[in-house]
Design brief:
There is one protein chain. This protein has 446 residues and is mostly helical. It has a single domain (32-445), classed as Growth Hormone, Chain: A (Up-down Bundle). The chain is 75% helix and 2% strand. It is built from 20 helices and 2 strands. The protein has a two-stranded antiparallel sheet.
Length: 446
């Protein structure tokens, strides 16, 4: 018998349009459709999370040498990115478990409010009064805290959006939510490109790099406002008895087998992210010898296209079945991604050809995230859904995120590009293995 984990029905959306009152009893007017509000919240929340995740990768790339010193620039930039990613499993474990017990909407609000504060603190960092080592330490510490808060945001907002969505729309909603990652990348890249053009490299290094962090802080508080006014847990979820120990149930209890299969799958996807986004961004400057403006423009084009591809892949997973879609995608990526990457960085590619190759690399790797919002949510029962979603999504980050430690020795032995190509191939293999090992589930695979 197929193992079915139904997502909560959306019949509770009935009653939308009723007037609501604020904290003091003042009427706010008609309440928007709660399902639409939750989906908007999931999209906005993931956009805020992803904007914050990639801020140090793109916004600080043109000034990394000025902030951290000229020695081991790529390694130091990678360490800042790693700090964010390593904080996420801790946040997912603590705040995801809290979301299962007290509700997803309040945890999403609190996480995003904290993220807004920490991001603003980074924008105000007094770098002129600190040494390069002190700047690096401060940025790493703040990014670690950001990672914890991001872990709480997506373990709440994304499952909530899926729970409010009708089955036939979950793939599209998932693709739309997950597409906020490349969309956020593209936004940061466009903003940095404009700032570099207006201020020049010196002006950007002096103070312009702070602007994207201020924007990220403002976006976080906009999300808090939306969740506070419009987003709530489904009535079924609010009325259900919470699990006594949701995190333990996922890690060592009844859901542990499901979790381990998902960890294999997600490890492959995070290898895609770290290699095709973080490493490629650095190598565009170091290996391809592009200047900061050209790096930013290349990533702007690539991430914009991959955002559209991610929405399409989410919807395609509803038509083909998510398990089947991920197996096929992983197999294709294992074959295509290394070749595309090598063509971009091992050959003479430059100009438009290099932009096209980096764009194709994004499409054949990170577009696989399209179905993931729905795929993970559908595989855990409501009582432990935030804990399961967050743990599967975040715990799998750890090994790929430590690439600043394991990738350089491999590159010293086999060159700059061959180990990255091998890691991309391994990512595809892990996606295939993790998806193929999951049981067929009638709701998603027909």
């Amino acid at each position: 018998m197929p193992d079915v984990r139904p997502v909560l029905p959306t019949s509770s959306a009935a009653g939308a349009g009723a007037a609501t009152t604020g904290p003091a009893g003042a009427a706010r007017g008609p309440e928007p459709d709660p399902a639409r509000a939750a989906v908007r919240g999931g999209v906005l929340g993931n956009y805020v999370d992803q904007f914050d995740i990639f801020l140090p990768v793109l916004a600080l790339a043109p000034v990394a040498a000025e902030l951290y010193g000229t020695e081991a620039v790529v390694a130091h930039a990678g360490l800042v990115f790693v700090a964010t990613l390593v904080g996420r499993p801790l946040g997912a474990a603590l705040l995801g478990s809290l979301a299962d017990r007290v509700g997803r909407a309040p945890v999403a609000r609190a996480s995003m409010a904290g993220l807004g504060v920490v991001t603003l603190l980074l924008a105000l960092l007094p770098v002129g009064l600190l040494t390069h080592e002190q700047v690096l330490l401060a940025v790493v510490a703040l990014r670690l805290v950001s990672g914890v808060l991001i872990g709480g945001g997506y373990t709440s907002a994304v499952p909530l959006a899926i729970e409010w969505s009708a089955p036939r729309r979950r793939g599209f909603v998932s693709g739309l939510v997950m597409a906020m990652s490349p969309a956020a990348n593209a936004t940061i890249a466009a903003l940095v490109l404009v700032l570099l053009g207006v201020l020049g490299p010196d002006g950007y290094a002096d103070w312009g790099w702070r602007v994207p962090f201020v924007v990220g802080s403002v976006l976080a508080f906009v999300a808090v406002h939306h969740f506070r006014r419009h987003v709530r847990d489904t009535p079924e979820r609010a009325a259900a008895a919470p699990a006594a120990r949701p995190l333990a149930t996922v890690l060592v209890g009844a859901e542990r087998g499901r979790l381990w299969r998902l960890l294999v799958l997600m490890t492959g996807l995070w290898l895609f992210t770290n290699m095709a986004v973080a490493v490629v961004t650095s190598q565009l400057g170091v290996v391809a010898t592009l200047d900061g403006r050209a790096v930013t423009l290349t990533m702007l084009v690539a991430t914009t296209v991959s955002a559209v591809a991610m929405v399409a892949s989410g919807h395609a997973s509803t038509l083909a079945g998510r398990r089947r879609f991920l197996v096929a995608f992983g197999a294709g990526a294992a074959l295509l991604a290394p070749g595309v990457y090598l063509a971009a960085f091992a050959g003479p590619a430059s100009g438009a050809a290099l932009v096209a190759l980096v764009t194709v690399l994004q499409v054949v790797t990170v577009s696989a995230y399209g179905p993931i919002g729905a795929y993970l949510a559908e595989r855990f029962p409501p009582a432990v859904r935030s804990s399961g979603y967050g743990t599967a999504y975040s715990l799998s980050i750890v090994l790929p995120a430590l690439y600043p430690f394991w990738l350089p020795p491999l590159q010293q032995a086999w060159g700059d590009v061959a180990p990255v190509a091998a890691a991309l191939a391994l990512g595809g293999v892990l996606v295939v293995a993790g998806a193929a090992a999951s049981p067929r589930e009638a709701m998603t695979d027909g």
